Structures are given as C-alpha cells and as structure tokens.
C-alpha cells in the first residue's frame, strides 16, 4: 500500500536548477522580444521577471513545457498587456500604440534573432558610456541582478542601480531606436558590441581588483554572449574570432592558479589541466576564420592563443609564429599594449635585450604589467637592482590581491638570489 501511495505522488519533474538554466539561456531572448513588442525596457524586464516567478511556482509540479522560451515569452507578454491595461489612463500615445500593437501580435516567439540583435545594439549604443553598456548587457541579455553586476565591478549596489536606471532613462528620453544599425554604421557599432563582450570576459579572466584573479561567472557570461553573437552573425569573421579567442584563453583557466589561488605563469602551467574541449572548439573556429582570409584583431589574437594551445609544452611553443602574428596585429591595430605583449615573444626569439629596447619608448608608465614585464626582462639580463625597482613600480600600481602577492613573491625571490635587500 505504501508503494501505491508513493506511486500516486509524483516527484517534481523540473528542479530549480532546471529553471535556473532556462533563465540563463532565455532571459535575454524573452526581454528582447518584449522590448520589440512594447518599446519599453522596464515593462519588458518586469514582465519577464513575473513570468519566471510563475515558472518557479508551476514547473516543479507540471514539468518544463515543450518550449520553455515560448511559455516565458507568452506569459510575460500577457502580463505586460494586463499591466498596461490597468494603467491605460496614464499611458502616453507611444505606450497606447504599443498596447494596440501587442494585442494584434500572435503569442509566439517571433523573430527572436533580430530582436536579440536589436537589444544588444541598443545596450551598446555609443550615446551610453562604456561602463553602462557593460552593465546593461549583463542585466538585460544575461539576466544578472544589480547586486551581481555591482560585485563583479566592485562598486556599491546603489551606484550600479543608479547607472542602470540612468541608462534606461537615457534610452527612453533620447528615444534611442531599438534597431540594428544601417549597413553604413554596422562596422563601427559592431566594434562597440564586441568591445563590451571582450571587456566582460577580460574582467572575468583577470579581475582588475579584488581578492580573486579569475571571475569564472563573468568568463562564462562573456562566452555565452559570444555564442549568441555567432548564432546571430555567423558571417562576421571578427565575431567568430572573438568567441575563438575567449574559448582558447578560458581553456587555461583551471591551470592559472594553485589550489590556494596563487598565480601560475603560462610556462609553468600543468597543460593536462587545460580544457581540451574548449581548445578543440576554439581551434576549429580559428581554422574557419583563416579560410575567410579577412583578418581582424580578434581573429589574430585567437590565432596567437591557438599557437600556444598547440604546444605540448612551453619549450615546444612556436615563438616565431607568435611573433609574426603580433607583427600582423600591430600593423592593423597599433597600440602600446599590443607592443608590450609582442615584447614577450621578442624576448623568446631575439633575446631580452632586444625586447627591452622595443618597449622602452612605450607610454605605459601607469600600467603595472609594463613594469612587471620590464622587471622580468631585467632579471634575465642580470640587472637585479633595476629589476627590483621595476617590481616596486608594478606594486605601486596593481589593484588585484592575487597579482600583488605574485609580484611580492617575485621581488622577494630576487632579493634572496642577490643575497641581501635593496
């Protein structure tokens, strides 16, 4: 009898983990469709949140619907219509037009691809500041809460909330269009979109401040955004190149630190800990880019990382090829940071003295890595006192605790080798 009773009480068929996975995958899709329908970010975002609250109540007992995204979009759309009808006396003519338009819309997902692309370009509109573009992208496309975004960039939650509210108000008041840019403007705007995704990834892979070197959550969100962009813009080689670069760099994440969080340099990493699946996918994307023969900065950086992940050991790295790729990158995207990274390859090919001379004129005095790289080159040249001074300069400029500890240990080792203190 007990067995019969148990059989009559089915276990929940959709866990909170299942619903969270749907939220991560479909939040941006749902918000973008509703912004396209109603023309209002706040209405869309609140309606999608209400739909997911309803999903949390229903799905553990009813199970995931055949199309979770369709269910969320339809539920959110109906919720938004109900809200607008309740507030119809206070609607302006634009909102009334949106309500009439929504009533005519079928309860389907619609042109989701175009809507998501429109939302990405809206979040990354040049009228918004770079930090706000990142915040809006994480909020609307990835579904991160204000507190999560604030923690990621180490600002108070109230500060981040104000930034997001101001950005939404600017979009509304300036009537920034919810559209894909014209063909004449697409390249410049796409560069802004890719820069935002790269900034999210870079902050995750090497946090600018805080206690941890890596923010795996931000790396994951950036890669997910990269996949969305590739799905929406498969013929844009720089979009493919950015995703390839992120996958190849992120593949080394587990080997970059010890169990207690200490930094491990690329040359010292246990390559068996690298993620082979990410490497294979990233290298396949790099090969696809090469076939297009339309090189851009992200594609070249992806190719550089493909060469690194090709080598079974640090000693087997093809530094000549890496240097050639940096020369190509410097030719199409000349800047001092690229020149600084190139110097690492120069040191392996032509020696530390040539590398040192190649960066001495760079205007990077405020950048801690400039001083850290100079210190490493000076160590190789036996110039211990000068190297110690450069480590001091790097320490005065670094904000991340893990990187600070790494520099302290390097400087201390230098003093011990010299047999005294400076």
TrEMBL record:
SUPFAM superfamilies registered for this protein in UniProt: Sigma2 domain of RNA polymerase sigma factors (SSF88946), Sigma3 and sigma4 domains of RNA polymerase sigma factors (SSF88659)
Task: Kindly indicate whether the keyword Transcription regulation belongs to this entry.
Answer: yes
- Could you provide one GO biological process annotation from this protein's UniProt record? DNA-templated transcription initiation
UniProt-recorded Gene Ontology molecular function terms = DNA binding; sigma factor activity
Q: How is this protein named in the record?
A: RNA polymerase sigma factor
Superkingdom per UniProt: Bacteria
Q: Show where the RNA polymerase sigma-70 region domain sits.
A: 23-88
Q: Which NCBIfam families match?
A: sigma70-ECF
InterPro entries named in the record: DUF6596, RNA_pol_sigma-70_dom, RNA_pol_sigma70_r2, RNA_pol_sigma70_r4_t2, RNA_pol_sigma_r2, RNA_pol_sigma_r3/r4-like, TPR-like_helical_dom_sf, WH-like_DNA-bd_sf
């Amino acid at each position: 009898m007990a067995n019969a009773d148990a059989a009559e009480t089915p276990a929940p068929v959709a866990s909170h983990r299942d619903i969270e996975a749907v939220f991560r995958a479909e939040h941006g899709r749902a918000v973008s469709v509703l912004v396209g329908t109603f023309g209002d970010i706040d209405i869309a975002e609140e309606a999608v949140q209400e739909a997911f609250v309803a999903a949390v109540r229903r799905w553990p007992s009813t199970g995931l619907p055949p199309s979770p995204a369709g269910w969320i979009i339809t539920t959110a759309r109906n919720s938004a219509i109900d809200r607008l009808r309740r507030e119809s006396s206070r609607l302006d003519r634009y909102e009334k037009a949106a309500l009439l338009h929504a009533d005519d819309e079928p309860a389907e997902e619609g042109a989701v691809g175009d809507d998501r692309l429109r939302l990405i370009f809206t979040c990354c509109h040049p009228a918004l500041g770079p930090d706000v573009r990142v915040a809006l992208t994480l909020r609307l496309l990835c579904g991160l809460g204000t507190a999560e975004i604030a923690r990621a960039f180490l600002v108070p939650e109230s500060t981040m909330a104000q930034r997001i509210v101001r950005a939404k108000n600017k979009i509304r008041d300036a009537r920034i269009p919810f559209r894909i840019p014209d063909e004449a403007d697409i390249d410049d705007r796409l560069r802004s979109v890719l820069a935002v995704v790269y900034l999210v990834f870079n902050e995750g892979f090497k946090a600018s401040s805080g206690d941890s070197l890596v923010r795996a959550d931000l790396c994951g969100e950036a890669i997910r955004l990269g996949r969305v962009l590739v799905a929406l813009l498969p013929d844009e080689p720089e979009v493919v190149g950015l995703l390839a670069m992120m996958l190849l760099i992120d593949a080394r994440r587990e080997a970059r630190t010890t169990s207690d969080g200490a930094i491990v340099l690329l040359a010292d990493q246990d390559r068996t800990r690298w993620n082979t699946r990410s490497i294979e996918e990233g290298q396949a994307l790099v090969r696809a880019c090469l076939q297009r023969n339309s090189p851009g900065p992200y594609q070249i950086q992806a190719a550089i990382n493909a060469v690194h992940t090709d080598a079974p050991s640090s000693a087997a790295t093809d530094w000549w090829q890496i240097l050639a790729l940096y020369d190509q990158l410097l030719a199409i995207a000349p800047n001092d940071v690229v020149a600084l990274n190139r110097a690492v390859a120069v040191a392996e090919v032509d020696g530390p003295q040539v590398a040192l001379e190649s960066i001495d004129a760079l205007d990077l005095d405020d950048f801690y890595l400039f001083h850290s790289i100079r210190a490493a080159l000076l160590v190789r040249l036996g110039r211990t006192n000068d190297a110690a001074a450069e480590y001091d300069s790097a320490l005065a400029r670094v904000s991340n605790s893990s990187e600070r500890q790494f520099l302290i240990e390097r400087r201390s080792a230098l003093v011990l080798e010299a047999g005294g203190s400076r």
